[in-house]
Amino acid sequence: QSALTQPASVSGSPGQSITISCTGTSSDVGAYNYVSWYQKHPGKAPKVMIYDVTNRPSGVSSRFSGSKSGNAASLTISGLQAEDEAEYYCSSYTTSTTLVFGGGTKLTVL
Amino acid sequence: QVQLQESGPGLVEASQTLSLTCTVSGGSITSNTYYWTWIRQHPGKGLEWIGYIYYTGSTYHNPSLKSRMTMSVDTTNNQFSLKLTSVTAADTAVYYCARDRGGYGNPDSWGLGTLVTVSS
Protein backbone atom coordinates (compact mmCIF):
# COMPACT_ATOMS: atom_id res chain seq x y z
CA GLN A 1 0.00 0.00 0.00
CA SER A 2 1.35 3.45 -0.91
CA ALA A 3 1.44 6.30 1.53
CA LEU A 4 -0.99 9.14 1.07
CA THR A 5 0.55 12.29 -0.42
CA GLN A 6 0.95 15.38 1.73
CA PRO A 7 3.03 18.52 1.15
CA ALA A 8 6.28 18.37 3.08
CA SER A 9 5.75 21.77 4.64
CA VAL A 10 3.34 24.65 4.96
CA SER A 11 3.63 27.92 6.81
CA GLY A 12 1.47 30.79 7.92
CA SER A 13 1.44 33.79 10.18
CA PRO A 14 -0.50 33.98 13.43
CA GLY A 15 -4.18 34.62 12.76
CA GLN A 16 -4.04 33.33 9.20
CA SER A 17 -5.61 30.14 7.86
CA ILE A 18 -3.75 27.29 6.25
CA THR A 19 -4.85 24.14 4.49
CA ILE A 20 -2.99 20.85 4.29
CA SER A 21 -3.92 18.44 1.52
CA CYS A 22 -3.90 14.66 1.61
CA THR A 23 -4.19 12.86 -1.70
CA GLY A 24 -4.95 9.19 -2.05
CA THR A 25 -6.78 6.92 -4.42
CA SER A 26 -10.19 5.40 -4.96
CA SER A 27 -9.03 2.52 -2.75
CA ASP A 28 -8.49 4.64 0.32
CA VAL A 29 -9.47 8.31 0.65
CA GLY A 30 -12.01 8.07 -2.13
CA ALA A 31 -13.53 4.83 -0.90
CA TYR A 32 -14.79 5.74 2.57
CA ASN A 33 -15.35 8.69 4.88
CA TYR A 34 -12.68 7.37 7.23
CA VAL A 35 -9.99 10.01 6.99
CA SER A 36 -8.30 11.19 10.17
CA TRP A 37 -5.82 13.94 10.91
CA TYR A 38 -3.20 13.89 13.66
CA GLN A 39 -1.07 16.54 15.27
CA LYS A 40 2.36 15.45 16.44
CA HIS A 41 4.81 17.46 18.49
CA PRO A 42 8.39 16.17 18.79
CA GLY A 43 8.73 13.54 21.46
CA LYS A 44 5.00 13.34 22.04
CA ALA A 45 2.37 10.85 20.94
CA PRO A 46 0.16 11.85 18.02
CA LYS A 47 -3.18 13.44 18.84
CA VAL A 48 -6.28 12.98 16.71
CA MET A 49 -7.59 16.35 15.58
CA ILE A 50 -10.16 15.18 13.03
CA TYR A 51 -11.75 11.78 12.41
CA ASP A 52 -14.26 10.49 9.87
CA VAL A 53 -13.29 13.39 7.54
CA THR A 54 -15.04 16.17 9.44
CA ASN A 55 -15.53 15.20 13.08
CA ARG A 56 -13.61 16.83 15.91
CA PRO A 57 -12.95 14.87 19.10
CA SER A 58 -14.06 16.48 22.31
CA GLY A 59 -11.54 19.09 23.42
CA VAL A 60 -10.14 19.89 19.98
CA SER A 61 -10.45 23.53 18.98
CA SER A 62 -13.09 24.48 16.42
CA ARG A 63 -10.28 26.20 14.53
CA PHE A 64 -9.52 22.76 13.09
CA SER A 65 -11.76 21.48 10.33
CA GLY A 66 -11.64 18.73 7.73
CA SER A 67 -13.14 18.09 4.34
CA LYS A 68 -12.92 15.68 1.44
CA SER A 69 -13.53 15.77 -2.29
CA GLY A 70 -13.02 12.67 -4.36
CA ASN A 71 -9.64 11.11 -3.58
CA ALA A 72 -8.33 14.12 -1.68
CA ALA A 73 -8.90 15.30 1.87
CA SER A 74 -7.93 18.55 3.53
CA LEU A 75 -7.26 19.90 6.99
CA THR A 76 -7.82 23.59 7.55
CA ILE A 77 -6.55 25.45 10.58
CA SER A 78 -7.96 28.92 11.01
CA GLY A 79 -6.69 31.65 13.31
CA LEU A 80 -3.22 30.12 13.43
CA GLN A 81 -1.55 30.12 16.82
CA ALA A 82 2.05 29.47 17.78
CA GLU A 83 1.01 26.27 19.55
CA ASP A 84 -0.27 24.86 16.24
CA GLU A 85 3.30 24.49 15.01
CA ALA A 86 3.74 20.73 14.70
CA GLU A 87 3.81 17.89 12.22
CA TYR A 88 0.41 16.86 10.81
CA TYR A 89 -0.45 13.47 9.39
CA CYS A 90 -3.50 12.18 7.60
CA SER A 91 -4.64 8.58 7.52
CA SER A 92 -7.30 6.66 5.67
CA TYR A 93 -8.96 3.31 6.00
CA THR A 94 -8.56 1.28 2.83
CA THR A 95 -10.52 -1.28 0.82
CA SER A 96 -7.95 -3.85 1.95
CA THR A 97 -9.07 -3.37 5.59
CA THR A 98 -5.78 -1.66 6.41
CA LEU A 99 -4.84 1.83 7.46
CA VAL A 100 -2.47 4.03 5.47
CA PHE A 101 -0.82 7.25 6.62
CA GLY A 102 0.38 10.28 4.74
CA GLY A 103 4.04 11.23 4.81
CA GLY A 104 3.44 14.15 7.15
CA THR A 105 3.43 17.94 6.79
CA LYS A 106 5.50 20.26 8.94
CA LEU A 107 3.55 23.36 9.84
CA THR A 108 5.60 26.43 10.68
CA VAL A 109 3.95 29.41 12.33
CA LEU A 110 5.97 32.41 11.22
CA GLN B 1 -9.79 7.78 31.23
CA VAL B 2 -8.08 4.92 29.43
CA GLN B 3 -4.30 4.80 29.47
CA LEU B 4 -1.96 2.66 27.41
CA GLN B 5 1.65 1.84 28.23
CA GLU B 6 4.14 0.10 25.98
CA SER B 7 6.81 -2.12 27.49
CA GLY B 8 9.62 -4.21 26.11
CA PRO B 9 13.34 -4.19 25.37
CA GLY B 10 14.73 -0.99 23.99
CA LEU B 11 17.53 -2.82 22.20
CA VAL B 12 17.16 -5.89 19.99
CA GLU B 13 19.87 -7.62 18.05
CA ALA B 14 19.52 -7.92 14.32
CA SER B 15 17.85 -11.15 13.15
CA GLN B 16 16.19 -11.59 16.56
CA THR B 17 12.58 -11.06 17.56
CA LEU B 18 11.18 -7.77 18.77
CA SER B 19 8.54 -8.24 21.47
CA LEU B 20 6.37 -5.47 22.86
CA THR B 21 3.41 -5.45 25.21
CA CYS B 22 0.81 -2.77 25.69
CA THR B 23 -0.96 -2.63 29.04
CA VAL B 24 -4.38 -1.02 29.03
CA SER B 25 -5.71 0.60 32.20
CA GLY B 26 -8.90 2.50 32.90
CA GLY B 27 -10.88 0.48 30.37
CA SER B 28 -11.48 -3.07 29.30
CA ILE B 29 -9.67 -4.60 26.37
CA THR B 30 -12.78 -6.72 25.78
CA SER B 31 -14.88 -3.70 24.81
CA ASN B 32 -16.64 -4.43 21.52
CA THR B 33 -16.04 -0.85 20.39
CA TYR B 34 -12.29 -0.81 20.06
CA TYR B 35 -9.46 -2.32 18.08
CA TRP B 36 -6.02 -2.38 19.63
CA THR B 37 -3.41 -0.94 17.36
CA TRP B 38 0.33 -0.82 16.78
CA ILE B 39 1.87 2.11 14.92
CA ARG B 40 5.53 3.01 14.52
CA GLN B 41 7.59 5.98 13.50
CA HIS B 42 11.07 5.53 12.08
CA PRO B 43 13.59 8.19 13.13
CA GLY B 44 12.89 11.37 11.20
CA LYS B 45 10.17 9.70 9.17
CA GLY B 46 6.40 9.47 9.11
CA LEU B 47 3.95 7.19 10.84
CA GLU B 48 3.47 3.60 9.72
CA TRP B 49 0.47 1.47 10.65
CA ILE B 50 1.57 -1.99 11.75
CA GLY B 51 -1.78 -3.58 12.47
CA TYR B 52 -4.54 -4.06 14.98
CA ILE B 53 -6.20 -6.81 16.92
CA TYR B 54 -9.73 -7.20 18.24
CA TYR B 55 -10.30 -8.71 21.66
CA THR B 56 -11.58 -11.91 20.03
CA GLY B 57 -8.16 -12.37 18.44
CA SER B 58 -9.05 -11.23 14.92
CA THR B 59 -6.09 -9.43 13.40
CA TYR B 60 -5.44 -7.02 10.54
CA HIS B 61 -1.91 -6.46 9.30
CA ASN B 62 0.17 -4.12 7.21
CA PRO B 63 0.87 -6.31 4.16
CA SER B 64 4.54 -5.31 4.17
CA LEU B 65 5.01 -6.72 7.68
CA LYS B 66 2.51 -9.54 7.73
CA SER B 67 4.99 -12.37 7.18
CA ARG B 68 7.11 -11.32 10.17
CA MET B 69 4.54 -10.21 12.71
CA THR B 70 2.25 -11.77 15.24
CA MET B 71 -0.23 -9.96 17.44
CA SER B 72 -2.00 -11.43 20.44
CA VAL B 73 -4.35 -10.31 23.17
CA ASP B 74 -4.37 -11.27 26.85
CA THR B 75 -7.79 -10.46 28.21
CA THR B 76 -6.89 -11.66 31.70
CA ASN B 77 -4.20 -9.05 32.11
CA ASN B 78 -5.79 -6.43 29.82
CA GLN B 79 -2.80 -6.47 27.51
CA PHE B 80 -2.02 -6.94 23.87
CA SER B 81 1.30 -7.75 22.28
CA LEU B 82 3.35 -7.52 19.12
CA LYS B 83 6.12 -9.82 17.96
CA LEU B 84 8.21 -8.97 14.93
CA THR B 85 10.72 -11.57 13.78
CA SER B 86 13.99 -11.31 11.87
CA VAL B 87 14.43 -7.64 12.66
CA THR B 88 16.88 -5.40 10.84
CA ALA B 89 18.01 -1.81 11.28
CA ALA B 90 14.96 -0.82 9.25
CA ASP B 91 12.80 -1.84 12.21
CA THR B 92 14.41 0.74 14.47
CA ALA B 93 11.54 3.05 15.40
CA VAL B 94 9.37 4.44 18.13
CA TYR B 95 6.55 1.97 18.59
CA TYR B 96 3.17 3.20 19.77
CA CYS B 97 0.18 1.24 20.93
CA ALA B 98 -3.21 2.86 20.58
CA ARG B 99 -6.92 2.28 20.91
CA ASP B 100 -8.83 2.60 17.66
CA ARG B 101 -12.52 3.27 17.96
CA GLY B 102 -14.31 1.16 15.41
CA GLY B 103 -11.22 -0.03 13.58
CA TYR B 104 -11.50 2.56 10.82
CA GLY B 105 -8.50 4.66 11.70
CA ASN B 106 -9.59 6.65 14.72
CA PRO B 107 -6.97 5.94 17.38
CA ASP B 108 -8.33 8.14 20.14
CA SER B 109 -5.93 7.12 22.89
CA TRP B 110 -2.22 6.46 22.55
CA GLY B 111 0.64 5.22 24.65
CA LEU B 112 3.67 7.45 25.03
CA GLY B 113 5.67 5.27 22.65
CA THR B 114 8.82 3.26 23.17
CA LEU B 115 12.00 3.47 21.15
CA VAL B 116 13.28 0.14 19.89
CA THR B 117 16.75 0.13 18.40
CA VAL B 118 17.99 -2.81 16.36
CA SER B 119 21.69 -3.32 16.76
CA SER B 120 23.96 -5.10 14.36
Comma- or semicolon-separated keywords:
heterodimer, A: 110 residues, mainly beta, three-stranded antiparallel beta sheet, B: mainly beta, four-stranded antiparallel beta sheet, 0% helix, globular
Reconstruct the topology from this structure.
The complex is a heterodimer of chains A (110) and B (120).
Chain A: E1 9-12, E2 18-23, E3 35-40, E4 47-50, E5 64-69, E6 72-77, E7 86-93, E8 99-101, E9 105-109
Chain B: E1 3-7, E2 11-13, E3 18-25, E4 34-41, E5 47-53, E6 59-61, E7 69-74, E8 79-84, E9 93-101, E10 107-110, E11 114-119
Parallel strand pairs in B: 2-11
Antiparallel strand pairs in B: 1-3, 3-8, 4-5, 4-9, 5-6, 7-8, 9-10, 9-11
Notes on the structure:
The complex is a heterodimer of chains A (110) and B (120). Chain A is mainly β and 110 residues long. Helices cover 0% and strands 44% of the residues of chain A. Chain A is built from no helices and nine strands. Chain A has strands at residues 9-12, 18-23, 35-40, 47-50, 64-69, 72-77, 86-93, 99-101, 105-109. In chain A, strands 1, 3, 4, 7, 8 and 9 form a six-stranded mixed sheet that branches. The mean pLDDT of chain A is 95. Chain B is mainly beta and 120 residues long. In chain B, 0% of the residues lie in helices and 54% in strands. Chain B has no helices and eleven strands. In chain B, the strands form two sheets. In chain B, strands 2, 4, 5, 6, 9, 10 and 11 form a seven-stranded mixed sheet that branches. Chain B has a four-stranded antiparallel sheet with strand order 1-3-8-7, with no helix packed on it. In chain B, strand 4 and strand 5 form a beta hairpin. Chain B is globular and about 40 Å long. The model of chain B has no long low-confidence stretch (mean pLDDT 95). The interface between A and B is medium-sized, with 28 and 21 residues.
